[in-house]
């Protein structure tokens, strides 16, 4: 999507800037492996071993594809923590409680960022584009990022609304299905919708995300 007046170098989308849904796809594999291991064996230790082995394989694949070692290790650590919680409580559904808590916390953080006029979408994109705080001194970009950030709040709220009752009922299979359905497809949809909201929030004459327009009299 390109609006009249925008520069050619701003034709890239949020998916281009943020890396698309590749990471979300990889993140769904270990939880699905855990659910399969549990459903087949009905043994938590088997499900745990399966999920950790699969997580290690995914991590090696990501590392060989050039992903940063810290991000790879964090991914494995997340699976390990989820597995430890399930082993400690003896409830397979508790493997997904980390995901539930993370989404609830993310919804709150994104909401607070909008209220305090530091929308996280602007913070993330601004860091990627090395703009420091220039985007925030552009009224149009600040408004656009704020509106688009509500889409991300909605993404996390949807996950919590689905995961919470499934976790409460202890339906491991449904949790695994929801983990996939509300992972990369929802991320892709969120990226698309927030990009559309952001673009439509900017006036036609605005040069785009890479070119914040700081009004005269405002410190750069």
TrEMBL record:
Keywords: Membrane, Transmembrane, Transmembrane helix. It comes from the Bacteria. The chain crosses the membrane at residues 44-63, 70-87, 107-129, 150-168, 174-198. It holds the Pfam family DUF3159. Signal peptide: none annotated. The keyword Transmembrane applies. The keyword Transmembrane applies. This is DUF3159 domain-containing protein. It comes from Nocardioides albus. The lineage of its organism: Bacteria, Bacillati, Actinomycetota, Actinomycetes, Propionibacteriales.
